[in-house]
Amino acid sequence: MATIEEVARAAGVSTATVSRALREQSGVSERTRKRVRTVAEELDYSISRSASGLATGRTRRIGVLVPYVSRWFFGQVLAGAEEVLRSAGYDLMLYVVGDREGRERFFRELPVRRSVDAVLVLTLSLREKEADRLRELGVPLGFVGGRMDGFNSVWIDDYGGGMLAVRHLLNQGNRDIALIHGGAPDSLNLPAPHERCTAFRDAMAEYGVPVRESWLCTGDFSVSGGRRAMNRILADELRPTAVFAMSDEMAFGALHALRDHKLSVPREMMIVGFDGHEMAECSGLSTVVQPVHEEGATAARLLLEQLQQGGDETRDVVLSTELVVRSSTTGHDSM
C-alpha cells in the first residue's frame, strides 16, 4: 500500500492537502479533491479511519433508522443513500425499528450517540419527543418521506400520487373501486399510507362515488399480503371493477389472486399500483412512479453538504411522481 507522501507527489499537492481532501475537510477545491481521490484509488491508498476520527472528531459513519429492510422500497432508498455515502468515504450503521418494542428501546437508549456523524430516518413519522431526542445529538439529520423541522427532508407528494391513481381508474369509467392499503401498525406511524388512503377517499368523493368499506383491505406492503387482500375483496358479495393497490408489491400479489380466480385484467378488473418497481413494466402494471433510489441519494447528499459546510441550516427537497399507464388499466388484457 502506498504512503500519503507518495499520493501527494503523484497528485502534485502537499500531504496536508491529501489529508484534508480525503477527510472531506474544507480548504480544498473540488477539482483538487477529485484528483487526490483518483490518485489515492490508483495507488490503493486509504486513510486510517481511527486516525481520521481522532484528527477530525468524526466517525465516518451515518446512522440510518428504518422500519423494514426486506421491503423493496426501503432497500432501494438504502441503496441510493449507501452509494452516495460510500463514494464519500462513509459507512452506514443500520437500526431497524420495525416493532413498538424496538422503536421504544432505540429512542430510550439512543445507541447512535457519539457513534455517528449524522442520522438518516426513512419514512417514520416521528413523534415530537422522538424528534427532540435526535435533535439533542447535535449532528446533521435527514428524513425521507415527509418534512421535519430541523431535518434535511426529502419526500414526494403521496397524496397527489394517490389522487393520480384513483382519478385514472375513475376516468376509465370505474365506480366500484377497492383499495389495498398497507395497514402499518400504529407503532410505526408511517406517513405514506395515511396520505394515500386520504387521497383514495377524497378522489372518490370528488366524483360523487361512495366508498364500500368491505373493499378496503390490508396488504401489509407485501406480495403475499396483496394476494390475501385481493382474495378477501373477491369473497365479498359484490365485486369491484378496479383496485388501487398502495404499493406495486401488493399489486403483484393482487394480480396473482386474479389469475387464480381466472379473472381477466383489465377487462374484468383494472388495477393500478404505486412505486415504480422494476417488475411493473414486465407485469403490464399501471403505476404511480416515484424516484425511490434518488430519494435516498438526495437525502445522503444533503447530509454530506451539511457535514462539509457546518451550521444548522437544513433543506427541503420534493421529488416528482408520474402516472405510467400500462395494460392493467387500458389496452390489451395483461393476463
TrEMBL record:
The keyword Transcription applies. InterPro entries: HTH_LacI, LacI/GalR-like_sensor, Lambda_DNA-bd_dom_sf, Peripla_BP_I. GO terms for molecular function: DNA-binding transcription factor activity; transcription cis-regulatory region binding. Residues 2-56 form the HTH lacI-type domain. The keyword Transcription applies. It comes from the Bacteria. CDD domains: HTH_LacI (cd01392), PBP1_LacI_sugar_binding-like (cd06267). Keywords: DNA-binding, Transcription, Transcription regulation. This is LacI family transcriptional regulator. The lineage of its organism: Bacteria, Bacillati, Actinomycetota, Actinomycetes, Actinopolysporales.
